[in-house]
Amino acid sequence: MTQNDIFNDAIHSFNTSYWELCTQSYEEVWSENFYKTLGYIKEELHFSIDYFLDHLIHEEDADIFKDNFFNYCKNDVDFKQHLQILNKNGQYQLFKCVTNNELPPELTPERHYIFFFEILLDPGQAITQDNFYFKETAQMTATGSWYVDFVKKQSYWDFETKKILEYPDDYIPSLRNSAQYYPEDCREQAASLFFRCAMNGTPFNTEIKMITANERVFWARAIGKPIYNKKKEIVGIRGVFQDIDEVKRKELQLKKSLNTITSQNSRLLNFAHIVSHNLRSHTSNLSLLVQLIEDIKDPEEKNSLIHEIRNISESLNTTIAHLNEIVAIQNNKHQEKKKVNFIDTYDVVMNGIKHLIAEHNAEIYTDFSQLDGVSFLPAYLESVFLNLITNAIKYRHPDRNPVIKIKSFLDEGNMSLEFTDNGSGIDLHKAGDKLFGMYKTFHDHKDAVGIGLFLTKNQIEAMDGRINVESIVGKGTTFIIEF
User: Fold this and answer.
1) Is residue 354 a contact partner of residue 347, using CB atoms and an 8 Å limit?
2) Partners of 20 in the β-ladder
3) Do 383 and 437 form a contact (C-beta atoms < 8 A)?
4) What are phi and psi of 350, to 5 degrees?
5) In the beta sheet, which residues pair with residue 416?
6) How many angstroms separate the CA atoms of 362 and 348, rounded?
7) Which residue of 64, 97, 206, 446 shows the fewest CB atoms closer than 10 Å?
8) Largest CA-CA distance found in the chain, in angstroms, rounded
């Protein structure tokens, strides 16, 4: 059974009054129960929107229903409205009129329908109560009404709109000066909304900044829809302004706080990885040296290794000091960079990985003559050096010793640092955007973790820099850092 079949069964079971619309021609089919509820037989009425507006609906409800009807047909804008319809006995019956969006999702038909549910109350009493509640609601929710008449070229505001925009009760709004009701950064948005509504009949419901007569900028919800004449021509726009300034500012503050928390969490995660990654390098070297000392019998050679332990210990202390510095910086809203010397950073890193370099006969050449340093976080720069150098050794070509060249340079005033190796290279077509992803590895090396490049990229971007890579499989890789 199709959804339309389910809908047809339901609508006949409940004996509902409705119109089925044809949106292309503005024609509609009135249900048998619609005639029956009003006491008519089908032959006594001409089923068209024009006939309904001229002869059946109460004149107080006609204009609103007409605009709702055409907006529903042209722009799929659902609506609900109370209205009075003349029955065969010459009396008005009160109905609640709703569209498809009031139906449960499983019953929503494919075509447009308008449903009429009779309200068995005294119509006059119900309308009086509705008007009272409307005024009360407008005041309590700071919602004002407005209307732009294209025929008379005039604008109309109710008292609540004047109150919201802080204009006196005798103020006459002007179409010519309408831009003054919006701050400069929102005038284009406002003009676009009104133009599309006026030309295409596109209704709007948006949040926008407005400006009062006292130059106070506040957030408002602006809702507008086109007004049609009987020829289906747009002759105006009607809508409401609601002062949502307090709620909107709280929402923006909440978003700002959420972004701050997200950024802090990201930095804390980054910090945790730095701790595990950088400290592991030092501890691995210490473990290796201790093992060597235990195996070596020669006292002189042992003393030499103990001296190396002292160097690694100093580098370890430096790293921990930098990490402590990061903790302090994370708590500082405005992170302060400081001038970091490339040679000093290189020396600290080399002290920690000297044995790794010796073990693999790696050659490292540096040239910092054009640029001796940059403004950076020392711990981040140390981590960048460590990751790129150890990666070059780890992913060396199997047929040759690793050769690493590090140089800084200026390119049209832009500061850059370049790491080039003669290693195995990376298939960039295969790696794609995942090259700098967390836990993404592109070699079969047993020590590949996939964290180093992720950390490096995040640290550089945190300092407003960026990193690019060039690589040829079998020949080597170049990382270029722009500060």
Assistant:
1) no
2) 29, 113
3) no
4) -60, -35
5) 409, 482
6) 17
7) 446
8) 120
Residue type, 264: Q
Q: End-to-end CA distance of the chain, in Å?
A: 65
Residue % of the chain over a pLDDT of 70: 82
Interhelix angle 245-295/299-330, rounded to 10 degrees, is 180
pLDDT tens, position by position, 336-358: 788 999 999 999 999 989 889 99
Phi/psi of residue 23, nearest 5 degrees: -70, -20
20: helix, strand or coil: strand
Phi, psi dihedral angles at 131 (to 5 degrees): -60, -40
Q: Is the entire prediction scored with pTM above 0.70?
A: no
What is the spatial distance between Cα 275 and Cα 49, in angstroms, rounded to a whole number?
A: 74
Q: Do 94 and 82 touch, CB atoms closer than 8 A? A: yes
Q: Which of 196, 201, 190, 192 is nearest to 225 (CA)?
A: 201
The torsion angles phi and psi of 180, rounded to 5 degrees, stand at -70, -10
Q: Which DSSP state fits 336?
A: P
Residues 6+ apart with CB under 8 A from 402: 360, 361, 362, 363, 392, 393, 396, 421, 422, 423
Place of tokens 């140089």: 407
State the Cα–Cα distance between residues 27 and 19, nearest whole angstrom: 10
CB 98 within 8 A of CB 80: yes
**Which residues, 6+ apart, have CB-to-CB distance to 55 below 8 Å?**
86
Compute how many other C-beta atoms are within 10 angstroms of the C-beta atom of residue 402.
Answer: 21
Q: How far apart are CA 17 and CA 249, in angstroms?
A: 45
Q: Residue 421: phi, psi to the nearest 5?
A: -130, 170
pLDDT tens digit string along 99-146? 887 777 666 667 788 989 888 765 455 544 555 555 666 667 778 899
Compute the distance between CA of residue 236 and CA of residue 227 in angstroms, rounded to an integer. Answer: 5
CA 62 – CA 297 distance, rounded (Å) = 106
